[in-house]
Design brief:
The structure holds two protein chains of two kinds. By secondary structure, chain A is an alpha+beta fold. Helix content of chain A is 18%, strand content 29%. Among the domains of chain B are: 148 residues, Ubiquitin-like (UB roll), CATH 3.10.20; 192 residues, FAD/NAD(P)-binding domain; 123 residues, FAD/NAD(P)-binding domain, CATH 3.50.50; 64 residues, Arc Repressor Mutant, subunit A (Orthogonal Bundle). Classes of the chains: A alpha+beta, B alpha+beta.
Chain lengths: 108, 996
Amino acid sequence: MLMLTCPHCGVTAEETEFAPGGQAHLKRQGPGSSDDDFEAYLFARANPRGVHLERWRHAFGCGKWFHAARCTVTLEVFGTYPARTAGPPAELRAAIAARRPGWPEGGR
Amino acid sequence: MSFRLGHGGRLIDRARPLGFSFDGRRMTGFAGDTLAAALLGAGETLMGRSFKYHRPRGAVAAGVEEPNALMGIGSGPQAEPNARATVVELAEGLEATSQNRWPNLALDIGQLTGLGARLMPAGFYYKTFIHPRAAWKHVFEPVIRRAAGLGRAPRGPDPDRYEQLYAFADVVVAGGGVAGLHAARLAAEAGRRVIVFEQAAHWGGRAPVEGEPVGGLPADAWVAAQLADLAARPNVTLRARATVFGLHDHGYLLAEERCGEGGGTGPRRRLWRVRAGLTVVACGAFERPLPFAGNDRPGVMLAAAVRDYLVNWAVAPGRAVAVVTGCDDAYRTAMALAGAGVRVPVVADLRPGGGGALAARARAMGLRVADGACIARVLGGRSVTGVVLAPADGDGSGGEEIACDAVAMSGGWSPAVHLWSQPGGGLAWDADRGLFRPDPARAPTGADGRPMAVAVGAAAGELALDAALADADRALRAVLGLPAGAPPVTAATAEAPPRTAAMLPARAGHRLRAKAFLDFQNDVKVSDIELAAREGYVSVEHAKRYTTLGMATDQGKLSNVAGIAVLAEARGTPVPEVGTTTFRPPFVPVTIGGLAGEASGPLFQPVRMTPLHGWHAARGAVWEPVGLWRRAYAYPATGERTADAVAREVLAVRGRVGLLDASTLGKILVRGPDAGRFLDMLYVGMMSTLPVGRCRYGVMCNEQGFVTDDGVVARLGSETFLCHTTTGGADRIHGWMEEWLQTEWWDWKVWTLNLTEQFAQIAVAGPKARVLLERLGGMDVSREAQPFMRWAEGRLSGIAARVFRISFSGELSFEIAVAASDGPALWERLMAEGADLGVTPYGTEAMHVLRAEKGYIIVGDETDGTVTPRDLGLERMIASGKADFIGRRGMERAHLVDPGRWRLVGLAAEDGAVLPEGAYAATDARNANGQRVTEGRVTSSYFSPTLKCGIALGLVRRGPERMGEVLAFPAAGGRVLKARIVEPVFHDKDGARLNG
């Protein structure tokens, strides 16, 4: 059972206190989008063996959504950050790259 | 035959005899005995029958790894099946029952399958029972189920108490042997919070059995001194009879404590849920059997287990014990037996060069040692009568018969790496020692990416006492950052390298290989693994599943490495290339009761009760669970059938006035400058244009365009809306709103609040509803002042209330929301003022009938996650002018605009019957699989007391275009029900009754 730190309220808690929300940073496809783009938005997920940016909600805590950068192989958590962003902050990107050289291109 | 020695036994108290029974026979053991020790002490070597061939079996081990001696303990609801007699502590009056035998243990009909063992090779069931399928279901499976199977689960509710406990520690030590205790001491002295779990009732592991001094003290005394020191420290928790059975992500560790045993009090089991910074895997090692024909006979035991029985419980497995070994350790058993006066006719050592210093000492004692020799086969049936001694590298022919009544065997040792491997720790094959050991370079890692476990002592592959302590000392100092130190002083014994064997003798023919067991509990033999390899199951994971090697309740603790060795030889590859199977929790079987903990009965899950719950209960309401809520289903009068009560309640609403507790409906406040814009995205309809004071029905979809919830939205103010949701949808929809606001439109100024439990909500429905509210007084509820789909605030009978003119019954209806605490008072006032009007409380079933008579949908009945608003005839709800809303793009997909979709209609059975809910309409056409093509299904079906016939709603292919057509619904018993497609509105089609 994972341990995660909510970047909003600062609490470090067990996985059961959070609700998972799948892959982070999907771009919403609305009316006017192509069939391919819409299909990818609904169904295509990265499922990497390695670094995964994923959504979580502190469901049984402050209720806020946030993102976690986590290795799907070792379960290492590189960091968490608020959901109000289109990508991980620069410090976290650097931290991930330090632990997984080459990320995000081919790096695990 | 096994027997109790007249002296010795470090764990037993001969002054306290304990009576127990085995298959109804009275026996006596001593306090401190395990059940297996007491049985062996009483001369009982036959303890069970094997799973597949029903071969007679006795205890082969003395600890948790025991595969054979599984028994039922106790009777009635507290009975425990499949208990390992080797770990069950003897208690006065204990009832033990052997399993998997009929009619009794000594005479077992099922053993006949053993005669056909050659006809039941690996994969037998897969190969034999593929065809015909019906034969499997009706013939093979029932017969096999009766003949095989383990113990029986107890019947009736479990009367015992179980609990779960959360704990946190810097260091958890799994295993209270000498390495574990030394590790705990170092961590404790360094100021860490430490928990030490020991699965047995006694501390110290094997060291006190071996008797070598530790730290200048007898091993027992050293262990006692460590325990005394640790127990006195406030930062240390010690728990015996507590088995760590799982190490999971980020140091989440599970242990089961057997509190009720050994005279203990408290719950029967306690589940420890520990978050451990570092887990010290000090679980020791398991000795491995050797693969020779007849190695499963009762009386053939692991060499170290023989030593355990001898030293701990003063029990010898026989009067003459032959020893066969591939390592030096078994010489300790030979010498211990000889020292206790038990005859050891031979020690067969597989190694052509023989053993080391221990072998020399055995020879010096006068024991006969045969180097390069093995046991070719065991003589005897239900007990051992002798062995055939033969060269280890021969084919087993010839050989010397040696009389004996027990065998001690050692195929070397396997570290107990389970806790290391479960969370992903890597293993390395140590060829010198013939074992897989934890690879420190591939430790399981925690949240920070750093190692979260360290293996020490025998669990790390350091089997000798001095090496184990030195390893624990070095590893803990390194991981804790302590300066170098010295481990407790012990004597060193040089041991010769062990030899592993895939089969003994090495060139034995099929007849012997088919009697050489690897997995005792699942009856997997050397020949089975070889057959699997020949048939292409060369991956260890495939061979495991094909042969069931290691898949019994002991999870292959004894058989894993031996099976890998056989597979490696059959494939002609080295052992490390074969690899190991995956280690999965639990390490040992655990009780379901412990996993459930307190969460059973009324504590299984919370029950949500409305403010009016007490009133419903007092009136004898029949309950309907809706999510965690309990809602009143109906209020049967004394002696009234529930169905009659539902009909009475429906007619009361249609004819007079009824009251419904609607408090469970979700009530979510949405507020802010962007609230209207936000709701326009959430609902398929337009909410931003709703005037203050008005209500509007809304439907929500997910991005795929499928309906997920519905309800009435009331605009309370220019920036404030109250969104009603379904009872089951309140939390989900509130979460849905927050998800969009927080992750997509985070710059929109909108706040949401789930007010569901803040209000009691009462529906007052029926032609007399307005009269009743006027009697309460305080608000103008006239048709002119409050038309349909308006809401107003005021005081009703002095109670602050918000009154919505909305209807889910088709009748004149008001839903009154008041503060939760005012709910009971308002309900009582309505009942009192309406007495002469015939006011009738109605439950959820009447509510369902009323709405179905009107063709109103229920999300979850008419929808199943694949139904669009258009399918439900709600296309008029979809705002045509909106560029975007959640689900708009999804609805444009080709399949969702297909005119052939199933759409909502009414269904009227030709004879007025009630159609079965969920029934499918079938055509005469057949699909590619020869099945009849379906063209619709019944989504809701009731008897309508209003119309005196069955009514149903359903989704039918092109339904609205096919009014008047008759569909065929195949039903149980070969009947076919006919129903005509009709409008979904059965009652008051023009809606005149809504205004009363």
